[in-house]
């Protein structure tokens, strides 16, 4: 059954796929899988290579590459879920690469319903690096994951046997926010302020200042570049303005680039 599913997934153009039994999956912050899908027994985790767009100093182009991956991955998630339900009469639920996710003071918009990093490691698709991102044996750090939960009983694939990270510390040195200074921890607040400068925090600051400003100042605020960035983020979703932890890691890149 696993090989038939694997063949289908790779046939869609997905770069890699692994299987994780729910009993083997553990995440320190995400909710228990049974609160999402009580009958879930396994996850099919799919890996997508990040485009070279992430290297662009133009953040519109860099983020557009991420949006391309997200759109393609959504399509693959849906097609796989349909395949599992049609071919095996299974139940299947999709887990996206990013949003939507719970946005509250409790989670601060930084906790996924399923930790795709931990799911990927459980599915044998990689191991954690110094930057706390999963390193794929072939694609290195430049990889995005999605998953499909199912009630099919599929055992976990073997874990990656070796530590893939070389501890070169390039990711730590390249982080403009200092979010990786403490080993084994990502300071989410530092990261988000730099990588998502037009997120919810920026919105709160803008509108707090707006309501306390006189009319003439309010007019100026609407003409400011910051407002236009906030407006665009409002209908696009999370906008990433930093890919340094991905593009600084030499693993998975050609020898020339590394």
Walk me through what this model shows.
The protein is an alpha+beta fold. It folds into 2 domains: 2-150, no CATH class; 197-236, no CATH class. The chain has 9 helices and 6 strands; from the N terminus they run H-E-E-H-E-H-E-E-E-H-H-H-H-H-H. The protein has helices at 2-11, 59-88, 116-122, 170-174, 188-195, 200-211, 215-223, 225-236, 244-247; strands at 16-21, 42-49, 92-95, 127-128, 134-135, 143-150. The strands form 2 sheets. Strands 1-2-6-3 form a 4-stranded antiparallel β-sheet, sandwiched between helices. It has a two-stranded antiparallel ribbon with strand order 4-5. It is globular.
Features:
single chain; 258 residues; alpha+beta; 6 strands; globular
Shape: globular
**H/E order of the elements?**
HEEHEHEEEHHHHHH
Count of DSSP E strands? 6
Largest sheet: 4 strands, antiparallel
- Low-pLDDT runs: none
How far is the N terminus from the C terminus?
Answer: 39 Å
> Strand fraction band?
5-15%
* Number of discrete helical segments: 9
- Mean pLDDT, as a whole number? 90
Q: What class, by secondary structure content? A: alpha+beta
Our count of domains comes out at 2
What's the alpha carbon Rg, rounded to whole Å?
A: 20 Å
Multimeric organization: single chain
Strand order of the largest sheet: 1-2-6-3
What helical percentage do the residues reach?
25-40%
């Amino acid at each position: 059954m696993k090989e038939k599913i694997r063949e289908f997934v790779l046939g869609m153009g997905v770069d890699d796929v692994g299987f994780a039994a729910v009993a083997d999956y553990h995440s320190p912050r995400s909710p228990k899988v049974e609160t999402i899908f009580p009958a879930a027994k396994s996850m099919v985790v799919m890996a997508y290579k990040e485009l070279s767009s992430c290297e662009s100093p133009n953040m519109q182009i860099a983020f557009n590459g991420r949006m391309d991956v997200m759109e393609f991955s959504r399509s693959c998630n849906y097609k796989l879920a349909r395949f599992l339900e049609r071919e095996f009469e299974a139940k299947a639920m999709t887990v996206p690469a990013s949003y939507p996710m719970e946005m509250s003071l409790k989670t601060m918009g930084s906790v996924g319903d399923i930790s795709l990093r931990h799911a990927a490691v459980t599915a044998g698709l990689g191991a954690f690096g110094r930057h706390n991102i999963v390193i794929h044996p072939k694609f290195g750090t430049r990889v995005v994951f999605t998953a499909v939960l199912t009630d099919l009983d599929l055992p976990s694939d073997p874990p990656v046997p070796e530590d893939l990270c070389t501890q070169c510390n390039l990711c730590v040195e390249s982080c403009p926010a200092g979010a990786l200074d403490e080993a084994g921890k990502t300071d989410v607040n530092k990261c988000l302020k730099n990588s998502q400068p037009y997120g919810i925090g920026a919105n709160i600051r803008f509108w707090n200042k707006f309501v306390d400003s006189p009319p003439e100042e309010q007019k100026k605020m609407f003409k400011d570049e910051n407002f236009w960035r906030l407006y665009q983020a409002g209908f696009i979703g999370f906008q990433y303005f930093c890919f340094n932890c991905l593009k600084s890691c030499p693993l998975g890149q050609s020898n020339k680039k590394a």
